[in-house]
Amino acid sequence: MSLLARIRGPADLKRLRRDQLPALAQEIRERLIQSCSVTGGHIGASLGVVELSIAILAEFDSPTDKIVWDVGHQAYAWKLLTGRNEPFETLRQTGGVSGFLKRTESDHDQFGAGHAGTAMSAALGMATARDLLGLDYKVAAVVGDGALTCGLSYEGMNNAGHSHRDVILIVNDNGMSISPNVGAISKTLGGIVANPMTQRVREAVKQVTFKLGGVFGDGVVEFARNVEESVKNLFSQGMFFEELGFRYFGPIDGHDLNKLCETLRFVRGLTGPRVIHVLTEKGKGFAFAESNREKWHGLAAYNPETGEARKLASGPPTWTQVFGDALTHLAKDHRDFVVVTAAMPSGTGTNIFQKAWPERFFDVGIAEGHAVTFAGGLATQGVRPVCAIYSTFLQRAYDNIIHDIAVQHLPVMFCMDRAGLVGEDGQTHMGLYDIAYLLAVPGMVVTAPKDGDELIGLLKTGLEHNSGPFSTRYPRDKAPAVPSPVEAVPAVPFGSWERLREGKDVALLAVGTMVEPALAAAKLLAQESVEATVVNCRFLKPYDREMLAAIAAETKLLVTIEEGTVVNGFGAFLGRDASDRHPDVRVVSLGVADQLVEQAPRADQLDYFGLTGPKIAARVLALRHEGSVPTR
């Protein structure tokens, strides 16, 4: 039986001999590479923290000790070692192991984590609760894979460093988030690593500390610590962590199990805020992931022998590709716009723009609030910013959108990838709320294209809109068709809808991705002698009031269809207005119900919420049969 197969939890790992741990690390890497080749997933970061995961479980007592992982896709090895090795083949599948940390999945997942930057704040909360309750356990936050470009990490560190509480920060420094880390903090960490004099002197001091501490007690340890601090002050670049109130240990080779275990055991025995700086290699042990760390951050199923995708790309391009290509092309004629993203160049397609127009591209790291306010500053000086951020991540900048952009009527364009249902990434990454939260912002233009051509047209319209913010959204999927050449696509008339089909019995008011299912539903309804008007509601705000009035004069049942939450979504927004203007018309909203959405293929999720042609048609027939349609 393999070493990994014997491990049902941390107790089994602790029974292994120290010289068996490197072999266990190799088995874990093989397991991750093979499993993710079938299910897809965020493999790069987890390959980098295999040894760190082993060492933490060997030297801490989880779940009594609270280990809080940042950005949960680091934690695949953690999952394997804490009782989830056997079902790991179900990773990111319906009803299977989550691709992120989930408290309901395991007692060892102390805090749910899908977005970056939460671990330090959560860990400090746990340490504070421990002290308030008079309990005794250790709390450690494992922060990395770009989370140190996130402002929330520093808010937590600032509070923790001067709290004097017993809390440990483990920095997983792999130099990456999804793309290479950017900014002064990354340079500071790099400078600490790069200074050879610092490392030689500090390593010597550390060895003295470890050897003499156990023999002569705390006095020698304290003396050595003071010497070490003097070395840091003399030779290191800023010693950022000490200024925040943390005792600093490192940098440590994150793939040297002996040194990791030795350091973790020593630092665990201390008290107060302290930080262990661990150097890891994203994608460690898998040649494809090591050579292209951005691509292998996370991806679909692949052939582990060749690195090629199992499903060859065919048919239309993705919405992301359409967006990136169009933006790059438009830059030739619109010299005043720049692109801003938050650590997601490849994920948003803006890497295409970056290659063509590097001086007009800004990746600010995992700092969505900063990205939005930075864009606002650009806009005050006549530069037109295009903010490309996933729908789920833009939630983190909601105050900035209102306070810094909308209140000042600044012409910033927000382009939201991964809008709607996102499939296997599960609850934390659903882009279901942007329609609702942006409709609530005064002066915000809210749009959604039905296809690639319309996305290009809306980009053109947005770049010409000067009186305030403009937004558009599109899903994680292939576009319905290959788009036309950018120069052949006209701008979409501002505030306009598009009537695609005529019918007197019901009007299907479809938003973006729901246009195709609405057209399919209309064909099915026609077979039941129900004639449906289908409208492409590409402008949600402001919407086309003239067309709505014309439709309301023709039919008294309006069904809105959106790939987003029905709570305060487009249907609710339109229904409130329509009831005032057209009191004899009923508006029924179809969309995603008020619930958290579990991981599953996007097509299955759409079917579950009734957002397919057959299920839309069935819902309309049910409405008519129940006698809910007012007579004319």
How do you describe this structure in short?
With 632 residues, this protein is an alpha/beta fold. 43% of the residues lie in helices and 14% in strands.
Fold topology:
Layout: H1 3-6, H2 10-14, H3 21-39, H4 43-48, H5 50-59, E1 66-69, H6 76-84, H7 119-133, E2 139-144, H8 151-161, E3 167-173, H9 184-194, H10 196-216, H11 218-235, H12 240-243, E4 247-253, H13 257-268, E5 273-279, H14 287-291, H15 319-330, E6 337-341, H16 345-348, H17 350-356, E7 361-363, H18 368-380, E8 384-388, H19 391-394, H20 398-406, E9 413-416, H21 434-439, E10 445-447, H22 452-464, E11 470-473, E12 498-501, E13 506-510, H23 515-526, E14 532-536, E15 539-541, H24 545-554, E16 557-565, H25 570-581, E17 586-592, H26 602-608, H27 613-625
Parallel strand pairs: 1-2, 2-3, 3-5, 4-5, 6-7, 6-8, 8-9, 9-11, 10-11, 13-14, 13-16, 16-17
Antiparallel strand pairs: 10-15, 12-14
Helix pairs in contact: 5-13, 7-8, 10-11, 15-17, 15-22, 18-20, 23-27
Q: How far apart are the first and last residues' alpha carbons, in Å? A: 75 Å
Helix content: 40-55%
Number of strands: 17
- Given helix and strand content, the structural type is alpha/beta
β-strand percent reads 5-15%
What's the total helix number? Answer: 27
Low-confidence stretches: 177-184, 190-199, 230-235, 628-632
**Main β-sheet, in a few words?**
7 strands, mixed
Strand order of the largest sheet: 7-6-8-9-11-10-15
